[in-house]
Write the structure tokens for this entry.
Amino acid sequence: MMPKVSVIMGVLNSQETISKAIESIVSQTFKDWEFIICDDGSTDETYNIVYQYSLKDRRIKLIKNEKNMGLAYSLNNCIEHSMGDYIARMDADDVSHSDRFEKQLKFLELNPQYDFVSCSTLMFDEDGVWGVLEGKPEPVKKDFLYGACFNHPTIIFRKESLIKASCYNVAKETRRCEDYDLFMRMYLLNMTGFNMREPLFSYYESRRAYSKRTYKYRIDEAVVRFKGYRSLKILFPLGIIFVFKPLVVGLIPARILHAIKQRLYKKKDSIQT
């Protein structure tokens, strides 16, 4: 019997957090799922940990890239192996609340006009929850000037919509913003998403996360913005200014950037990157 939902996750050297992420899927109140996990060349115990889970629960399926290929490639690999009508995202250092699938699927079934749904997110680190992300409920094309509009690992897609959009773009410039690129391409095809207000997801992000974002990825994001804005016809007049936003943000010291995000998220403003 085919599962209703295929959960997809790419993993790389996530031995410290992977168990908690998997357990949050196993604990879902909605049970009709398969969990496809693609190991992207881990050199720690990640693969072995996932393998042990797959032995205990046949719904958990482990696949492996021959070498490190990046998240976009890994997610496409998961999609190729998927059998569900819906594709749910998950990341190895995050936690899905137990009723996430149940509530998001109910929303999609009651609202066929939307191609995917996201939700509000609790931001946490080693010291606990420090903020809340809330996206604009119904983003329109021009909202992509300000950011990706949706928090990628919280999303459930209709699989047919994801396939129609050709899934994830595997390219140099999408190495850290494959989601931003995908959302803009879906909106180019007149697809739409919705951000639920209820927090159904906990997303790990600490001050150290900012120091890992090298400037080359900021340049890649500027390229994604330029191409996306041009396709959506929002490049001029304001779009050309926002193309350079990641380059400016990349110059802000990590501690200051974290403090800014703390203030924004505590105010429950829209999702920005």
User: Anything to note?
Assistant: Residues 94-155+163-268 form one domain. DSSP finds eleven helices and nine strands in the chain. The two ends are 40 Å apart (CA to CA).
